Amino acid sequence: MSxxxxxxxxxxxxxxxEFAEKTDLEDYATYNKNELVVALDKHLRDNRSIFAGDKKLxxxxxxxxxxARAASPxxxxxxxxxxxxxxxxxxxxxxxxxxxxEEESDEAAKSPSVLRTSARAARTSLDxxxxxxxxxxxxxxxxxxxxxxxxxxLESAWTASGVLERSHALRATLSSLKAVETIVxxxxxxxxxxxxxxxxxxxxxxxxxxxxxxxxxxxxxxxxVLLTGAFWAxxxxxxxxxxxxxxxxxxxxxxxxxxxxxxxxxxxxxRRGRPSASASRxxxxxxxxxxxxxxxxxxxxxxxxxxxxxxxxxxxxxxxxAVPGHWAGMLTGxxxxxxxxxxxxxxxx
Length: 349
Fold this sequence. Notes:
This protein is mainly alpha-helical. The chain contains 15 helices and 2 strands.
C-alpha cells in the first residue's frame, strides 16, 4: 500500500476532484470517492517527476517519501514454563519423569504457534464476513447518483409525453388575430344554436345505490325544429349580420390591399410563382370586417332593422337573447377585433 494513500483518503471528494483536474486524470468524473482515491494515488505516483513541484501536492509527496508503516507484530504468548523435575531416588522413576517433562515442553512449545494461527484465522474470517460501515462521503455519492438518475428519468418522461410541444403549437395557433375572431364567432354561433335547438327528455338511467350513483336524465336536441321557420329565420339573420355581410364589406372595402399593392393605389402584378405574404393576408380586411359587423349589430339588434320586413321581430329578439351580453356583447366582440387589428398592424411595422 502506498504511504500517500491514507492522506488522500482523508480528503473530501471536491478536493480530490480538484487534484484530478489539476493533474489531468482521465475519466475521474465516473469514479466514486474510493475509486478516485486509488486512481489518483497511482496517477500521482506514476507522474511524480511532473507534479512533485506543485505546492498543493507537496503534502502528498511528503507522505509518499515516508516509509510505509509495518504491521504491528502479534504479541507473543507467554511461554509455559515447566517446573524442573525433582530428582527421585530411583533411576527408573527419574527417567520416566524426564520423558514426561520432555513431552510437556514439546506441547508447550507448540501451543503459542497454534494459538497465533487460530487468532489470525479468526481475524481473517471476521474481516471477510463483517464488512465495515461505509463512510459519509460514500453515502452522499450514492444519494447524488440516485437523485441524478431520478431527475433524468422525469425529464425524459416529460419530454416523451409531448406536452411541451403541444402547448407551444397551441400557443402559436392562438397567437393570431384570425384565431381571436374565430373564437368570438364560435361563441356567438354556439349560443345561437343552443337557444334554437331545445333539449327534449328521452329517458332516465336509474340510480345504482351500491355505488351511490344517482339517476341520470338523458336529453337530446329536438331536431324536428329544423323543419320549421322558427329555427332557420334567426340562424340566417345571425349568419348575415355576424359573418356574410361583414365579409363582403371587408372584401370590397379592403384597406390593407392598397398597402400590399404599393403607393398611389395602383395594383402591381405579382411575380410569377407563389404570391407574397402581404397579398395573401389582404384577401379580407379585418378592420373593415369588424366595423361593418358593429354597424349591422347596432342597426339590426338595437334599432330593430328588419331588412325591409324580410325578418320578423321574433327572429331579431331570438338572436339578441341567445348571444351572451345581447347586442352589447356582440359590439364588445367587434371592439376586440378592432383593437387586435390595430395592435397587429403596429407590431408588423
